[in-house]
Amino acid sequence: MARARYLHPLGRALVGALRGSTEHAALYFDERLRYVDRDLPPAQLHAALREQMTAEFPAIATALADELPADGVEQQLWDFHEPLLNPPDAANRVLFIGDCVFVETRAFLAQRRAESGRPVDVRHVFFSAKQPIAAVNTAVVNEVQRHRPDVIGLSLFTFEGVPPYTYAWRKAALPLVGARTAGIARGLVEIVRETIADIRTVSEATVAVHVPCGLPLDRLRHRIPFAPAHSRAQRRLLRDLSHGLQELAASVENVVLVDEAALAAELGGIRAAAAFAFAEDDVPPGYSHTTALGPALARYYDGLLSDYDLVGKAKALLVDFDNTLWNGVMAEGDVVHNTDGQRLLLELKNAGVLLVALSKNDESSIQWDQLVLSEDDFVLKKINWLPKPDNVSAAIKQLDLAADAFVMLDDNPVERALVTEMEPGVRALDPATEEAWRTLRRWLAFPSTRQTDEARRRTVMYREAAERRAAMSGSHDYETMMKSLGLRCRIGPAASSDLPRVLELIERTNQFNTTTRRRTAAEVSQLLDSPDWLVYVASLRDRFGDLGVVAVAIFDRAERAFDSVIMSCRAMGFGVEFAVLAAVLDAAGPGAARGMFVPTSRNGPAAELFAQAEFQQEADGTWVLPPSASGPQAPSWLARE
Questions:
Q1: What is d(CA 9, CA 19) in angstroms, rounded to the nearest whole number?
Q2: SS3 at position 492
Q3: pLDDT grade, residue 578 (50/70/90)?
Q4: CA–CA gap between residue 249 and residue 351 (Å, rounded)
Q5: Half-sphere exposure of residue 529, counting CA atoms within 13 Å on the CB side?
Q6: Residue 425 to residues 355, 393, 428: CA-CA distances in angstroms?
Q7: DSSP string of 522-541?
Q8: What is the pLDDT of residue 15?
Q9: HSE on the CB side for 637, CA within 13 Å?
Q10: Do the beta carbons of residue 28 and residue 17 sit within 8 Å?
């Protein structure tokens, strides 16, 4: 039985792979990785694989004698397995939560990403009809914490992953049974909602929820091509479930829907989607029942990850006008507005994305009253006849962001090429393509956008910051210049209402972050409630406006140590960090204190914090403030409120 159902299919996959089939190789490599501990350190993992292969390859070479040339088969096997023994670093992390559909998705996804030079680390928490949901959700939370995925796929129904769906689906297949499906669908949607809620206790990653297309087909309907693929009650259950999942996605942040029925339609219908991906006389169904839907889902997730790579961590969108926000040239006459695109950009702005107008135009020719967007929706307006790379360089400096925080939307391929070549890190999208607008729509489901008051105010705050930098660009002495800003700071213990902003600082801040230690909402809530920890926040305002909460310090009272000191880049240079340190130390009481700095490739701005605050570095890298030291002092230009 094992030989027929497992070894034979695996052997055929290996033969196909050695003959050059990337699909066979994908299936084979995925199966190889199922039987090693993926959480081992790389050296141990590779040693375990090498030990297995050393023992197996002579036997495999003998077994394949009739399939492949005898000379050099063992060396061919070693060469073929090189990607397993020396894999490149993964660009993305994906966690699949659900049923058998992901067995056939993960292999082809890994293959596609490897071919594009963006390798992915894929893990899978299996949901089956034989497992209690609560027990699986515990495993989900543990794996999300351990794996820290960028994207999470959630499929509980495609291959009958949870018992209530399995029961309802099979009952609905019977004649004259299962007519009432709305209540069943509501209950199933609640299972999905509960699973997402458990995920949200440890991660804000995008969750891709599968809307099932009705696989697998029962044996009778699978074998009779002229029979309907589903009974009337099954179709009604799928429809009710689809409506419920759409409502859920609309009410929960960072959720996208995977419409399996649409993918099946692209393949030629549900029967085509249910067909085996490999010919049965080549690779028998065996353990994987690999269907055509698996590669289609891999293409979907490949696109989702590509969009994440483009905009998932971006903060600003450089927006061309003519033939981008409208068709035509406004200075030359009437234009046809892309109102859907403009509404989408307004949604992005309200979710915290900074819009920068980047148009070769006379500003007087822009008829703002015709647009969905207003002038105030743009943090900067670069509407002039300067070269666009010069305008982009100026915007990067004015907003004080890294180049890789910017994405460009421009119809002119020459302008896109010039900007991306002159400002490495900036990515570009062509508004003439559906893919560009799909990417921008998906941006709303990535954690870099948020439906919060802070996100909605971000454009105003960055505009004020740009004005602030302009005011400071004169030749005044530094202290006089700083006092001219009228800086006022409020520092105190974080309240529960500060939690969203504290999380945002913890998750998004890379530059002024002493340890870059990420925490979940549940973890931060525990710190806020614990008498053993101090969590202090600082808000800042000046004569230009209110910057809101700009810094957070987390202090372990038992260890008398700063666990993390984090500050938004828009508050750098004002001395807020020293005022925060001083306030926390006052609250902690007299005695020595320690701080930790963990260097990364991006947190150089925080490297000198403890030294400048009179801490002394120990041999183990820890910074210590002796009781005798005067310690950090708030600068004279910063008034406390």
A1: 15
A2: strand
A3: very high
A4: 16
A5: 6
A6: 17, 12, 10
A7: HHHHHHHH-TTEEEEEEEEE
A8: 84
A9: 18
A10: yes
- In angstroms, the CA 372 to CA 345 distance is 9
Q: Measured on CA atoms in the order 129, 134, 137, 138, is the torsion positive or negative?
A: negative
- Interior CA angle at 122 toward 151 and 436, to 5°? 40
Per-domain residue ranges of the chain? 1-86, 88-311, 316-458, 475-640
Residue 502 makes CB contacts below 8 A (sequence gap 6+) with 494, 524, 535, 537, 549, 552
C-alpha dihedral sign at 253, 438, 106, 76: negative
537: Cα separation from own chain's centroid:
26
Secondary element (H or E) of residue 357: strand 354-360
Strands 533-542 and 378-384: unpaired
Sign of the C-alpha dihedral computed for residues 214, 216, 221 and 222 taken in this order: positive
> What's the pLDDT band for 92 if we cut at 50, 70, 90?
very high
316-458: what fold?
A: Rossmann fold (3.40.50)
Mean pLDDT of the chain: 86
In this structure, whether the domain defined by 88-311 belongs to CATH 3.30.70.60 is answered with no
State whether CATH 3.40.630.30 applies to domain 475-640: yes
Q: Is the peptide bond before 163 cis (omega within 30 degrees of 0)?
A: no
Q: Do domains 88-311 and 316-458 have the same CATH topology?
A: yes
Is 389 buried (19+), middle (13-18) or exposed (0-12) by CB count in 10 A?
A: middle
The values of phi and psi at residue 497, to 5°, are -70, -20
Count other C-beta atoms under 10 Å from residue 132's C-beta: 10
At 394 the pLDDT is 92
Q: d(Cα 103, Cα 285) in Å, to the nearest integer?
A: 13
Q: Is the pLDDT of residue 416 over 50?
A: yes
Calpha distance 367→569 (Å, rounded): 34
Nearest by Cα to 381 from 403, 406, 398: 398
Residue 569's closest CA among 484, 462, 423, 486?
Answer: 462
Tally of CB atoms within 10 A around 362: 12
- Cα atoms in the 13 Å half-sphere on the side-chain side of 112: 20
How crowded is residue 476: how many other Cβ atoms within 10 Å of its Cβ? 13
Whole-angstrom Cα distance, residue 157 to residue 191? 11
In this prediction, residue 475 carries a pLDDT of: 45
* Token pair for 422: 């002159």
| Integer Cα distance of 500 and 114 in angstroms | 36
Question: Across 113-228, where does the E strand assignment appear?
Answer: 120-126, 151-155, 206-211
What's the rounded Cα separation, in Å, for the pair 222 and 227? 9
Answer yes or no: are the C-beta atoms of 199 and 252 closer than 8 Å. Answer: no
